[in-house]
Amino acid sequence: MLNIGKIEEGFVLDHIQAGMAMSIYHHLMLDKLDCTVAIIKNARSNKMDKKDIIKVECDISMLDLDVLGFIDHNITVNVIKNGEIVEKKELHLPRQIRNVIRCKNPRCITSIEQGLPHIFVLADKQKEVYRCKYCEEKFDKRTL
Amino acid sequence: MRHLMNPLDFTVEELDSLFDLANDIEHNMPRYAHACAGKKLATCFYEPSTRTRLSFEAAMLNLGGSVLGFADADSSSAAKGESVADTIRIISCYADICAMRHPKEGAPLVAAEKSRIPVINAGDGGHQHPTQTLTDMLTIRTLKGRLDHLTIGLCGDLKFGRTVHSLINALSRYEGMRFIFISPDELRIPDYITEMLKEKGIPYEEVIRLEDKMPQLDILYMTRVQKERFFNEEDYIRLKDFYILDKKKMKLAPADMLVLHPLPRVNEISVDVDDDPRAVYFQQAQYGVYVRMALILTLLNIHVG
Predict the structure, then answer these.
(1) Yes or no: is domain A96-143 CATH 2.40.240.20?
(2) Is residue B265 flagged as an active site residue?
């Protein structure tokens, strides 16, 4: 068994679908933060068989819950203060996301217009479908 | 300030008012001859479209307004690399309303977000063409007397045909509609449209042969297989002549069925159908002017007493 030490302040992202940790690492732009990050891949899980976990020691306001909710709203977000879990945050599918993913439709205006953000809007909450705000192209989550 | 990006931007009630206004314009043109005196329409066409552009220009001129603009991207500042956002900021200083066509999908929405004047989407790539949809709806409503309880056959390129997608979306808000999609496998209606119809409980069929379904139709909406929507010319050549409506097929149609087409036609409707009273595609172009007149008045909030 591999042991990763406790963090004093930050967050622990638990129940990440196995194999998705690095994608979350990049989308949350954790590579840009100057803090301790632990990525645990394929940890044993009673609920999921295998799961990934990310521990980040930083100010909790630095976490973009919308991005996380978009990627996987089933992830458990544990907020840590003084080495203890003080809150479990619930994730929701955000109404829209900005500059997290890019529209891949070559006919979309986002492919040529300078400075235009890539905005995706939640089109179907039940099916978790997001569409480009401009061309309405459906985003395929499998490409994450 | 309102824009028109998508036919669904207007509620059913708002569309009714718009169509009532268009019908009033049709019967009382002189009353509207100076309604837009002193107003200017900018037609910003980043790709050629004689028909839609001239329809907008005719609409504004019929209302006593003036028109300025460009007819292709090469004669605009886009050729120098100017963004849509910057162009519309400038156009907002010159005109009172703008009709924009752009090959990139969503470009008119970018314009609307930055504009100080109403923007009308005059077609954005394969995405939306709302004024064509309003034209189709006004034609059906005027000549059939209703927009509900109709069986509509849509034939030809149902995959890339944006006019088809917009029309189905718009008509799916009315009661008692039934759609029959007639196309080759390669040009079938996209799944998201059939999923939407299933969710709303609206009946539809997908068939390959036009002849089989002709007797059931109230409306036959023909479309052109558009060369510009294909990445591969071989596919275009193979599919362009798949459906041709001629006198023989028209004999199978009910006496009161209407044939619509967004135009331009290539050869999917034989010219010998043109004289058939059920062929209303040229009247449809005329209704396009009336509905654009009504739209300009509505977006400029001009009321003619």
Answers:
(1) no
(2) no
